[in-house]
Write a structure and sequence with these properties.
Blueprint (H helix, E strand, L loop, with lengths): L6 H20 L2 H26 L1
Helix pairs in contact: 1-2
Keywords: Membrane, Transmembrane, Transmembrane helix
Length: 55
């Protein structure tokens, strides 16, 4: 099974992970919650794009 990841989704996801790590290090709970939701949305979009291309 080949997995093709869209570069834009990968870039956004990587940026969100970096920002999430920074927010955790700073102890900003509100920002951690916001970034967690945004990251889940980006990963959901990644899964949806994989399901669409796999059919």
């Amino acid at each position: 099974m080949q997995i093709k990841i869209r570069p834009a989704v990968m870039l956004i996801s990587t940026g969100l992970v970096v920002a999430l790590v920074y927010a955790v290090a700073q102890g900003d709970k509100d920002l951690v919650a916001l970034l967690s939701v945004a990251l889940m949305g980006a990963l959901t979009k990644l899964v949806e794009s994989e399901e669409a291309t796999g059919k």
